[in-house]
C-alpha cells in the first residue's frame, strides 16, 4: 500500500461532520471559485474544487483520491455498462466514477441518495462537470429506489456497485439486489468504510460460503444487523430519520462470492479500506 500524502489531507473530522450546512457552503464555494470558467465541463476540476474545500474549509465525508483510485482502476477493468452507487452525499464519488464509467464505454451511472438536499447538491455539481448525460440521481431510501428502478425496467442488471451509505444497510440492500436478480454472476461490488468505521456484518456476509449463508436463511436471518457497527454510526441519521427501516429480503444464498480487502486511506489520512467482491457463480 502506498503511503498517504499529508499535503493532500482534508481538514480533521469534527464531532458533527455533515448535514450542518457545509454541503450548501460547498456549492457556494465552487460556484464562486475564481477558476469557475475552467471548472465548467471538467470533472477533474470540479473534483479539485471539492477537494480544495475539504482541505481548506471543512471536512467532507468523500471517498477521496486514494480510495477513489481503487474504484476507478476497478471500473477500467470491469468496464461496466451500468454502475450503481448507494449514498451520493455531495457528488464526489459519482463525478469521479461516472467520468470513469463514461471513459470505459459505460452508459449509465445511478447515484442513489436519500437526503433531497444532498441530492440537489449532487445534481448541480454533476451538471457543472458535464456528466448529466451519464449520471442519474435517484432521491429516496436505497431499498425503495432499488426496487423501483428494477420494477420500472430502468435497472436490469448491476455490473458494478459502490456501497457508501448507511452502514447497516450494506448487507440488506445487497440481499435485495440478489433477490431481484440485479446482482448475478459477473457483478462486482466495492464497499467503502469497511475499516473506518467498519462493517463486520457486511464483511461476514460477502466472505461467507454458500453453506454458511444457507444455514442463516434457515434461521430466518434478515433485516439490519448492527452487530459490531459503532453505535454512533447506527444512529448517524437519527436527527433526520427517527426509525431506520431495512429490506427484509433473504437474498440469494446460492451466489458464490470471492472477496478481498484493499487497504487505503480516508482523505484525512486515517487508514481505511475498500472490500472488493466479485460474484463468480451459483452453487446449486
From TrEMBL:
<protein>
    <recommendedName>
        <fullName>catechol O-methyltransferase</fullName>
        <ecNumber>2.1.1.6</ecNumber>
    </recommendedName>
</protein>
<comment type="similarity">
    <text>Belongs to the class I-like SAM-binding methyltransferase superfamily. Cation-dependent O-methyltransferase family.</text>
</comment>
<dbReference type="GO" id="GO:0032259">
    <property type="term" value="P:methylation"/>
</dbReference>
<dbReference type="Pfam" id="PF01596">
    <property type="entry name" value="Methyltransf_3"/>
</dbReference>
<keyword id="KW-0808">Transferase</keyword>
<dbReference type="InterPro" id="IPR002935">
    <property type="entry name" value="SAM_O-MeTrfase"/>
</dbReference>
<dbReference type="GO" id="GO:0006584">
    <property type="term" value="P:catecholamine metabolic process"/>
</dbReference>
<keyword id="KW-0489">Methyltransferase</keyword>
<keyword id="KW-0949">S-adenosyl-L-methionine</keyword>
<keyword id="KW-0128">Catecholamine metabolism</keyword>
<dbReference type="InterPro" id="IPR029063">
    <property type="entry name" value="SAM-dependent_MTases_sf"/>
</dbReference>
<dbReference type="GO" id="GO:0008171">
    <property type="term" value="F:O-methyltransferase activity"/>
</dbReference>
